[in-house]
Write a structure and sequence with these properties.
Elements lengths: L5 H11 L5 H12 L5 H11 L7 H12 L4 H10 L4 H15 L14 H18 L23
Helix pairs in contact: 1-2, 1-3, 5-6, 6-7
């Protein structure tokens, strides 16, 4: 009996992908499983099994949309703003993903400053994670002002 590897399953899903099907959630799951969050990594996986195949343009677009949804700091802030009562969940989901992937690209884009407490919370979280994981801190981090008064982010 042959059990396919995660990269082989991803390759098959990518080559046969259709929007608005379970292919999207399958690809998202496999990308997390493989710790892959870049199109070049996906293309390398496809070439590994089928060197002469190319990814269809509509699938490239689909992959771009999937990769955009990965847990960037900007996406995390948008989720917190949309559902503030779940900010603990959104923040810890980001922290888990950042620790797992250790990818500085998800913190590269500067925050649009709009809420001094949430902005300071996210900036201090990124600063701590960068220090913990020995990742260079993004330049924009120093431009986020601290809170004027204490903020207890997880009090109900």
């Amino acid at each position: 009996m042959h059990i396919p590897t995660a990269d082989y399953l991803l390759e098959m899903k990518v080559l046969a992908a259709c929007a608005d099907t379970e292919d999207v959630s399958d690809i998202e799951f496999l990308l997390k499983e493989l710790k892959s969050n870049e199109r070049t990594q996906i293309a390398e996986i496809v070439r590994k099994y089928y060197p002469n195949k190319t990814i269809k343009p509509e699938t490239e677009f689909l992959l771009e949309e999937i990769l955009k949804k990965l847990n960037t700091l900007k996406a995390t802030k948008e989720k917190i703003e949309a559902e503030p009562k779940h900010r603990r969940f959104w923040l810890m989901d980001f922290v888990d993903d950042f620790r797992y992937y250790k990818n500085a690209e998800i913190i590269a884009e500067s925050l649009e400053l709009s809420d001094d407490k949430i902005d300071a919370l996210l900036a201090s979280t990124v600063e701590n994670l960068c220090d913990e994981l020995n990742i260079e801190m993004p330049e924009w981090l120093s431009k986020v002002p601290s809170c004027d008064e204490p903020f207890f982010c997880f009090r109900n």
